[in-house]
Amino acid sequence: MTPDFAPDTSALLARLGDAVAFELRLTDRRRLSSALVELRLTGAPPSFASKPGQDLMLAVPVEGGDGSFRRRYSIRSHDLDTGAITLWIDVTAAGPGARWALEAPLDSTIEAIGPRGKVLLDEMADWHLFIGDASFLAAAYAMAESIEPPGQALFVFEVDHEDDSVTPSLPEGVGVTACFLERGARVFTDPTGLLTGLEAIELPSGQGHAYLGGEMKVVAGLRGALLERGLGAEAINAKAYWRDGVANQAHGEPSRDA
Question: What is the reported pTM?
Answer without folding.
Answer: 0.94
